[in-house]
Write a structure and sequence with these properties.
The complex is a heterodimer of chains A (305) and B (295). Chain A is mostly helical and 305 residues long. Chain A contains 12 helices and no strands. Chain A is 72% helix and 0% strand. The longest helix of chain A has 30 residues. Chain A is globular, with a radius of gyration of 21 Å. With 295 residues, chain B is an alpha+beta fold. Chain B has a single domain, classed as 2-Layer Sandwich (Alpha-Beta Plaits), CATH 3.30.70. Chain B contains 8 helices and 10 strands. Chain B is globular, with a radius of gyration of 23 Å. The termini of chain B are far apart. Chains A and B meet through α1, α4, α6, α8 and α9 of A and α3, α4, β6 and α8 of B.
Chain lengths: 305, 295
């Protein structure tokens, strides 16, 4: 090969890669829903293990919230296929080299265990054999929570395990970002329904704060890595940083206020976390597709061995 | 019983009008299942006639992408796509000053194609198993399995494979899988009038290519090098080698090729581990926040 480094030449400025043919609303929406549902199931299980008798309402809401992924999430995914009537071919094989395959199986497993848990919850609420149904739900929630953890993390792996520069540049920080955003959104969503006089709402807000701090740190680390790789993506990360910081401030202030007056602030924080989390997924998706269409970004990214 | 006939079921492939093992006559190689086949595209021989593009479209019955002029030299094809599996690049390097005849244009032409990577990222990404490795060590999409999820598209480090808007399935070069089954050389290689596209066994082609590079270096073309052979540019980051590789005379980027592509599957485990570790840490935080309270 000729000596020296790339001099910036492109082939008539034409893209070197093809962008992922994903609809940003459907797939971005799915990633958000998968994170929310998976983490909601996880938090419901943790709450049940810790405060099962005291917090049955929160556990119920978490289990029902987890049904978003098997329903709306699955519909979004199938709708985005080029040949939707063949969606079941996702279950022909299992490949550890493909996060799309890992995720398909995780979604199926999560759907089965979460639907079972939600159904048992529903039966227990109807009043007959309540103790039995409740006990069974406490068993099925364990695999559901485990698969929920996979569901809210594999999506970052799905994006990083591509040749798209923006996604491939920072696999670690993107994974931390997605995982913490999922926990923040689920904690925020569950906190909304909590009566303020009880302590759980404030505990969930504290958890959301921890998750948002993690997310902010990961976003900043990612920004550094992506910039070092020669990809300019400050705008979408800025939007995410601002929304996360704003929600963080609202939750923190609400914790300092007396319980009765904190409700509105906490609810506003939750709304911003949920909207921001959704926007972040769409932004990351769009930024990746854009980076694949910029030959100078791609070709400079593919310099390092 | 009525069974559909496949070329492999016909011993001696005595199909009407097909010469048995025709590839021995046209490419000097017998096509045997279990061996690795590929292309060696020698761009110093390419004259930009696009016979490969036409032969590919004809044999594979592929529709046109667009009819029009791009204004970018003679490259009116644009790029490889779901319907275009050979694409001739035209790189204009101004006027040559390294040859005796004045006014010669420094024109580079290169017929681009699917690289049929050794560790093919599209194949590794495919969640349905539609993309598979054939008995000829090539990478092919099974059209009756693909559900058009499109995950192979961002996986490919060369921007080759794409999902067709016509049928909602992924398409790319099959290295003429059907022709190989019938003992025929792939259409593009057979149609190439200058032997710029050479079909054969990969190890044999690599040897031939190294000899060619040495000959070119001896003739004064010091810039000649191979793209896609083990440890060379294009075969980096865990891709090992490309079954369809190239002899180039300018930097890879001039031909829209990445210098150091990587294997995306190498990022799956680190990414999953980082995500699950984060979840575990936050779950522990949750357990402490949710500690049972009195009263």
């Amino acid at each position: 090969m000729p000596e020296g480094n790339w001099d910036g030449t492109t082939y008539y400025g034409r893209p070197q890669l093809k962008p992922a043919p994903f609809n940003k609303w459907l797939v971005g929406g799915y990633v958000f829903i998968a994170g929310l549902s998976g983490a909601a199931q996880l938090l419901a299980t943790l709450t049940d293990l810790r405060r099962g008798r005291a917090e049955t309402n929160a556990v119920r809401r978490g289990r029902y919230l987890a049904m978003l992924a098997p329903t709306i999430g699955a519909v979004c995914l199938i709708a985005d296929l080029g040949t939707p009537q063949r969606f079941y071919n996702m279950l022909r094989v299992f490949k550890t080299t493909s996060p799309m395959s890992i995720g398909s199986w995780a979604l199926v497993g999560f759907s089965i265990t979460s639907t079972a848990t939600a159904a048992l919850q529903c039966m227990a609420d109807r009043g007959r054999l309540t103790a039995w149904f409740r006990a069974l739900a406490r068993v099925t929630q364990i695999p559901a929570a485990g698969l929920g953890a996979v569901l809210c993390t594999y999506t970052a792996s799905l994006f990083s395990a591509t040749s798209t520069p923006r996604w491939a540049a920072a696999p670690f920080s993107l994974a931390v970002r997605y995982a913490s955003a999922a926990v923040a959104s689920a904690a925020a969503a569950l906190s909304v329904g909590e009566p303020r006089r009880a302590s759980l709402g404030r505990d969930l807000d504290s958890l959301a704060i921890a998750a948002l701090v993690t997310e902010l740190a990961a976003t900043m680390a990612e920004q550094q890595t992506v910039q070092r790789a020669g990809i300019d993506d400050s705008w979408s990360n800025l939007a995410d940083t601002v929304s996360a910081a704003l929600a963080l401030g609202l939750f923190a202030t609400s914790l300092l206020l007396p319980r009765q007056r904190s409700r509105l602030l906490s609810a506003a924080g939750s709304a911003i976390v949920l909207a921001g989390s959704f926007a972040m997924r769409v932004n990351v998706l769009r930024a990746g597709q854009r980076s694949a269409q910029q030959p100078n970004v791609r070709l400079s990214f593919a310099q390092r061995g | 019983m009525d069974m559909p006939l496949r070329a492999a079921d016909l011993c001696g492939n005595d199909l009407d009008g097909v010469i048995p093992n025709e590839s021995e006559l046209t490419a000097g190689v017998r096509i045997v299942p279990g061996r690795s086949y590929g292309f060696f595209t020698d761009t110093t021989l390419c004259i930009g006639c696009k016979a490969c593009e036409v032969a590919c479209k004809e044999w594979n019955n592929l529709p046109a992408d667009h009819l029009g002029l791009t204004g970018d030299s003679y490259d009116n094809t644009g790029a490889l796509s779901a319907n275009t599996w050979r694409h001739v690049n035209f790189v204009e390097h101004g006027v040559r000053d390294d040859c005796g005849t004045p006014g010669q244009s420094g024109w580079l032409m290169m017929s681009d194609v699917c690289k049929h990577c050794h560790n093919a990222p599209c194949l590794e990404a495919c969640p349905t198993g539609a993309l598979f490795r054939t008995e000829f060590d090539t990478v092919v999409v099974q059209q009756d399995v693909c559900n058009g999820c499109g995950y192979c598209v961002p996986a490919c480090p060369f921007g080759v494979i794409d999902v067709s808007t016509l049928d909602g399935k992924a398409h790319k070069c099959t290295l003429c899988y059907d022709r190989l089954k019938g003992g025929l050389e792939p259409a593009c290689a057979k149609s190439c009038p200058t032997n710029s596209i050479q079909f054969g066994e990969v190890t044999e082609l690599q040897q031939r290519a190294r000899t060619r590079v040495n000959a070119l270096h001896g003739a004064g073309v010091k810039t000649a090098y191979l793209y896609g052979v083990p440890d060379g540019p294009g075969a980096t980051g865990g891709l090992e080698h490309l079954n369809a590789f190239f002899l180039l005379t300018a930097q890879p980027e001039s031909y829209n090729l990445p210098r150091a592509p990587t294997r995306p599957a190498n990022r799956v485990a680190p990414s999953l581990a980082a995500g699950l570790t984060t979840i575990a840490a936050l779950a522990i935080a949750a357990l402490s926040f949710l500690a049972p309270r009195k009263g």
